[in-house]
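Renewal narrative, Specific Aim 1. Our central claim is that a sequence can be written position by position from structural information alone. The example that follows is taken directly from our test logs and has not been curated for this report. It begins with the structure tokens describing the chain, in the order in which they were read.
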């Protein structure tokens, strides 16, 4: 069965984006960049793949992506209406009314969608963001890959936005990079 993996960068104080949804303060350089390009090149958006020489690079880990509305809309100001054409793209939103034909809009029941996707053959499913969607899908998340960055921002979009509940995970891998970034993989208990 396929896994749902929440693969995301986060600050020390638990935010995946600033209050305005910005995330450009997360560095993409050095060992972290090389690791992402080698292990998860499909997690780089279409605008980066060409300049990085990844245009024809096959997907390594994921073949499907789930995004909340705000995560999807981050690319719209630069005309990126299909940010990950190398993946099956799903946007979960009750307010969006249209997307390009290669981006599937899902108005409700993200849990039902994930359960159906997990039954299919293929690579794993990438939960890209945001915090509200991650909160709605917490019980379906099989794995977390957290790229913890060595700084705080004080406020923003949290890693999870959900009611209080204790959900256990165990550490299965941890890598430290010279930049101070720690990439930790957690699996559901």
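The sequence written for that structure reads:
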């Amino acid at each position: 069965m396929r896994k749902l993996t929440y693969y995301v960068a986060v600050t020390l104080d638990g935010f995946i984006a600033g209050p305005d949804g910005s995330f450009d303060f997360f560095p993409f350089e050095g060992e972290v960049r090389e690791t992402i390009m080698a292990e998860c090149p499909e997690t780089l958006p279409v605008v980066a793949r060409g300049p990085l020489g990844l245009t024809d690079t096959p997907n390594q880990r994921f073949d499907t992506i789930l995004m909340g509305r705000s995560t999807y809309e981050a690319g719209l100001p630069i005309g990126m209406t299909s940010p990950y054409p190398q993946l099956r793209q799903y946007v979960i939103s009750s307010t969006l009314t249209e997307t390009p034909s290669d981006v599937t809009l899902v108005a409700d029941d993200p849990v039902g969608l994930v359960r159906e996707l997990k039954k299919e053959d293929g690579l794993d499913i990438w939960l890209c963001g945001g915090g509200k969607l991650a909160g709605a899908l917490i019980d379906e998340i099989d794995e977390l890959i957290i790229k913890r960055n060595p700084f705080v921002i004080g406020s923003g979009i949290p890693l999870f936005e959900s009611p209080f509940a204790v959900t256990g995970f165990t550490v299965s891998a941890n890598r430290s990079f010279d930049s101070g970034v720690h990439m930790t993989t957690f699996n559901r208990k």
